[in-house]
Amino acid sequence: MAERGMSLRALARDSNYDHGGLSKVARDLRPPTVEMAQRLDAVFGTDGTLTALVAAPQSTQMGRWQTSAMDEELEAIDIARRVGATDCGELTLGHVEAIFDDLAVSYHRSDPGELLVRIMTQLKYISRLLDGRKTFKEHRRLLVTGGWLSLLAATCHIDLDRKGPAAAFLRTARSLAEEAEHDEIIGWCLETQAWQHLTEGDYVRAVALSQAAQHVAPKDSSAYIQASAQEGRAWARMGDRGRTRALVDRVTGLAAALPATERPEHHYRYDPAKSDAYIATTLAWLGDVEAAPIARQVLARLIAPSDGTPRLRRAASARLDLSLALIAGDEPDEAAHETMTALASGVLVPSNYWRAQEVISKVEARGLPEAHALNEAYQGLRRSAPRELS
């Protein structure tokens, strides 16, 4: 409303919604409904973003214990805030930064819709802190944490194939990062866009965005390594073996120079141990038979890791990489089996459906009888997937 110079009465008129109801939501006395959010999206032209903020928590059907856990997190932060001279002293900032790290670690083993609930809770709390008393340094740290959380929210929306909300959160993340002069977050924003274009088949744009990310991100950062990897994948999709191999070698060298991270599952910290997974994906997309043995090792490690916690979401994607490599190596029967296992896993996110479709198309081209069952499983998965909010 403030951005558009619109009064509450004008908004009620344009949205054909009760003025009193809008007033209570504006004063945080009542939660907004999905219907209200849809009407406001139509008035503001925000492409489903407001609806996503309201519907994401409802769509996950959280249990009472989950809501209680989030309330307890915020209460802990509030206690820390009250003992400081400002509204966001060291204890408060340390809490919100630690919670972001926990969410980034949870990303690979969480349902993206459920993770969005906690992300939005934290973003709302940071918004409150931004309105409070703080020093310049504290303000910048809040902007940085808000930028990381917005970036993670965008990634979850991409996983759910919700393009409108994903784009909105990417814009927010970049805006906060630019305000805080945080080049690594800007680099990650560009890299995330590159991945989105790659999954949509716009490989030229994916290369351009990956290169832009490498230009802006610090050369010793995880964003720089991941952007280099993304460029290599895009060249692989275009069949350019020379550029692909050069980037595989670059990423391998950069990863080897990194120290082992204490939290290897953190989505925004490149783990050197994951470089073989990147190589397997890239070579599989290139149609290189060398990808198969590497992909087998990666899958085995994800199913039975050294810490005993299976990485189910990554394993489902790794099965599709292995399937593609098996087809290149003329082993379509095993490829069909691995693809069916991935489809039946229950953890394959919508942003990876295209990878399954590619394997199925290649199985069909071989005339294998398994193609019919794979198609049925794939169509069933698509029918049960959450639809993009509008």
> What percentage of the residues does DSSP assign to strands (E)?
under 5%
Structural class comes to mainly alpha
How many helical elements?
Answer: 19
Overall pLDDT confidence: 84
Number of strands: 0
Provide the gyration radius in Å: 22 Å
Question: Main beta sheet: strand number and arrangement?
Answer: none
The end-to-end distance, rounded to whole angstroms, is 20 Å
| Low-pLDDT residue spans | 57-67
Helix content: over 70%
SSE string, helices as H and strands as E: HHHHHHHHHHHHHHHHHHH
Instruction: Give the number of domains.
Output: 4
Shape: globular
Protein name: HTH cro/C1-type domain-containing protein
Organism: Actinocorallia longicatena
Structural features, described:
- The chain has 390 residues and is mostly helical.
- The protein has four domains: 38 residues, no CATH class; 135 residues, no CATH class; 105 residues, Alpha Horseshoe (Serine Threonine Protein Phosphatase 5, Tetratricopeptide repeat); 102 residues, no CATH class.
- The protein has 19 helices and no strands.
- The radius of gyration is 22 Å and the shape is globular.
- The two termini are 20 Å apart.
- About 3% of the residues have low confidence.
- InterPro entries: Cro/C1-type_HTH, Lambda_DNA-bd_dom_sf.
- This is HTH cro/C1-type domain-containing protein.
Please specify the SSE layout and strand pairing.
Layout lengths: L7 H8 L3 H8 L7 H11 L4 H11 L4 H19 L7 H17 L5 H19 L5 H24 L3 H18 L2 H17 L3 H14 L5 H16 L3 H16 L18 H12 L4 H13 L8 H17 L3 H12 L9 H13 L4 H15 L6
Helix pairs in contact: 3-4, 4-7, 5-6, 6-7, 6-8, 7-8, 8-9, 8-10, 9-10, 10-11, 10-12, 11-12, 12-13, 12-14, 13-14, 14-15, 14-16, 15-16, 16-17, 16-18, 17-18, 17-19, 18-19
Organism: Actinocorallia longicatena
InterPro entries: Cro/C1-type_HTH, Lambda_DNA-bd_dom_sf
Protein name: HTH cro/C1-type domain-containing protein
